[in-house]
Design goal:
The chain is an alpha/beta fold. It is built from 16 helices and 8 strands. Strands 1, 2, 3, 4, 5, 6, 7 and 8 form an 8-stranded mixed β-sheet that branches.
Length: 450
Amino acid sequence: MNQNSNHAQPPLEYIPPNFNPWIWRSVKTLLPLWLQWQTNIQDIEGKNVAQLANLYQQFQDGKIRFLMAFRHPSVNDPYCMGYLVWKLLPKIAKDKKITLKNPIHSHFIYDRGIPLWAGSGVGWLYSQLGGTSIQRSKLDIPGLRSARELFANSQFPIAAAPEGATNGHNEIISPLEPGISQLGFWCTEDLRKANRNETVFIVPIGIQYFYISPPWQAIEQLLTQLEKDAGISSQDHSIDPAKLYKRLYQLGEHFLGVMENFYRQFYHRELPNLPDQTFQERLQKLLNIGLEVAETYFDLKPKGTMIDRCRRLEQAGWEYIYRDDFKEMNKLSSVEKGLGDRIAEEASLRMWHMRLVESFVAVTGYYVKDKPTAERFADTVLLLWDFVAKIKGENPLFRPQLGQQKVFITVGEPLSVSDRFDAYKSNRRQAVTTLTQNLQDALEKLIIHS
């Protein structure tokens, strides 16, 4: 949340897409320079991009509609998707003699919360690039209507991240949210009502980051910094993976114990530390308690997966901060504004618990142990850095750069939504659930195991 989340404000407004070809052309031109200056990405390589070129050709010929459902392990994923569509796709199409009409672009769905912490200029830029905002934690009618309209009728395909948020893991996919599958069925439904015969697809897109040289020294240095933050002193600064893992595990256990005591002492929660409990069992209980603390404040009952609960808490918090009764703030008294600010501040503090949980939903407890690669070490150490940054009240966006990376983007086999439409008409909920699971499986198959 941004600093304004401590003040009550009018409701968040939907930001509509307003594609501007001049802005698009400028951003496309500047993207390679941005990647060089603002990220540690040195190279982006695509696999099966010719398949995407064929899909674009069929789309432009009016034969199909499709949505690109991309993995979301990093905040750099949107840049990588831009590079895929603006740079790799036209090049492969030219090499394969696949004729595509300009502009080669895609609309995209983004979380309405992004401009809150990234700045209002980001909302303007996303709009100019054809992005459509959506509040992921509520029934956002304008946002859903826009996404549905773009999917069925726009001049470009559309892209979205079905995980809903970054999870910080290159080789683990968070449970997917069902909204992407539902959009696919709505698109199919809209086309049939209009007597159109385009086939609707969801195209899984894998994104993974690999270090060009394993950054063991940088990992060790960041681990040392985190140990210092935790009040732990380590004399062994070896970059041997076995020794690093021991330190990483001890640090994780230390933080786990600190947080268990935090919730016991100040929130009066029962968290028995039984000797036969695994790290993963303790972590899951802790995450559950963190959500319960926030849910108790907002008077919410625990319901659904941890992701579901995070989304409900996010919406509850936003309703306390971005209020319908504050639409005309000039008519409010200073007392009303002051009380509104107190409620917004309390809501923001309670949402802090949810933000911690959100960062650790994908943590397994055996991710590094199973494969102690530099990538998995880096994923985990950076997640711990995020955790410490949030505890200290620092901005977790400015992550340390551990080393130069290469990105692999893999285009998967398209999933036909049209072929599943009869099943959808028979049982909508089950059809959405099944397609979501099919997409999850497809994205998992695209993971390159280092």
